[in-house]
Design goal:
It contains 15 helices and 14 strands. By secondary structure, it is an alpha/beta fold. The longest helix has 18 residues.
């Protein structure tokens, strides 16, 4: 099949969420013509083209439904019309709920569907119940992409045929490989949404014990989310304002700058009470690609990427004392930090590069085209 004939639709809830850099890399890196649909689980917009639904389409749909010619609503009709008009050959749905919402539309116009699971969509109990464990999605989809080995097992356990699952972790932009850490500061960095599964409060509590021995140590926390104020209150309570800095949402360029001047990335990911789990966190892939060691937990896809005592230091979930000891080991042995970071950089290049990720995704999409 000639690459120029590939016409791929990527469908995702958000236009350009700061926590979804993996989607941006797929949009830019896939071969063929990529059409990006966004604006909810049932998309409302096509990037660079605007709204899918026009007043004329809405009026026509009302007439069709009045005369019982169509069972689809106006938004569904508009999406299918756009897919047909753009001669889409395969749809890549980002997240399970998105796939569930567009499933009947892809099926109706006979377009292959590939579903990319990422974390919450394969783990939160209420989500799995709401979408009936994706039974119909698994039946129709050509392939199901899992970003961690634990996610593979979870998908099989809820009914996905094993032969449909493709293990393909997200990847860091190749720009991160150009970063050269200096290891001159007692500085840890963490980046991402302040949510329960990332447990940023545990990272702060672990770091508190570091500050007791190293009053000049720094923790830079980037991102936003529902637990941000809680974490700020925790820092105030323990009088860590001079040691912990909250810098909000930052660009990839700013993140690379932080990685260059930091000692390690720290992230205490856990399984939340509602079942929510990580996939394979892109921030960890990026930091490791840059040459920083990872201080984290044995959680989901993290332990697929980070080898304990080889490219980072991992501990069990909720074990704040152990995480604190791992942070102290790097502060007190910078040569260890350099060794772990260098090994991580090489591992990402060999096994988790953007090229590997995109090639596998390309292969999955092309093999699904009818």
């Amino acid at each position: 099949m000639e690459l120029q004939k590939n016409r791929i639709a990527i469908v995702a809830p958000s236009e350009n969420a700061y926590s979804e850099t993996f989607i941006q890399t797929q949009k830019e890196g896939l071969k063929g013509e990529v059409f990006y649909y966004y604006g909810g689980k049932l998309p409302k917009y096509l990037e660079n083209h605007g709204p899918l639904l026009s007043s004329f389409t809405s009026l026509v749909n009302k007439l069709k439904r009045f005369f019982k010619v169509s069972s689809f609503n106006a938004k569904e009709e508009a999406f299918m019309k756009s897919l047909k008009r753009n001669r889409i050959q395969v749809v890549l749905a980002q997240y399970g709920p998105t796939a569930s919402c567009i499933l009947k539309l892809c099926k109706h116009i006979n377009i292959p569907l590939v579903v990319h699971f990422h974390g919450y969509d394969a783990s939160i109990k209420s989500v799995l119940e709401q979408y009936n464990n994706y039974t119909n999605v698994f039946q129709y989809a050509s392939k199901i992409i899992a970003v961690s080995k634990e996610m593979q097992d979870k998908l099989v356990n809820i009914g996905c045929p094993k032969n449909k699952i493709v293990y393909n972790p997200c990847a860091a932009s190749s720009e991160f490989a150009k970063v050269t850490p200096k290891f001159l500061k007692k500085q840890f960095v963490t980046i991402g949404r302040f949510t329960n599964k990332k447990a940023p409060y545990y990272t702060i509590l672990a770091f508190k014990k570091v500050v007791e021995l190293h009053p000049d140590a720094l923790l830079i926390m980037a991102g936003e989310g529902t637990l941000l104020n809680t974490c700020k209150n925790l820092v105030s309570f323990y009088k860590l304002e001079n040691n912990v800095r909250f810098i909000g949402v930052i660009s990839s360029q700013d993140y690379m700058g932080l990685l260059e001047e930091s000692l390690a990335l720290a992230q205490h990911s856990i399984t939340a009470s509602n079942g929510d789990m990580e996939g394979t966190p892109v921030a960890i892939l990026e930091a490791s690609a840059a040459g920083l060691p990872i201080v984290s937990t044995f959680h989901a896809g993290i332990s697929d990427v980070v080898l304990n005592e080889q490219t980072g230091l991992l501990c069990e979930e909720h074990n704040v004392i152990s995480m604190s000891k791992n942070m102290l080991r790097l502060i007190e042995d910078v040569s260890l930090a350099k060794t772990l970071g260098a090994a991580g950089k090489l591992r990402i290049h060999k096994q988790f590069s953007l090229e590997i990720h995109l090639n596998k995704l390309q292969e999955v999409l092309e093999s699904s085209i009818i």
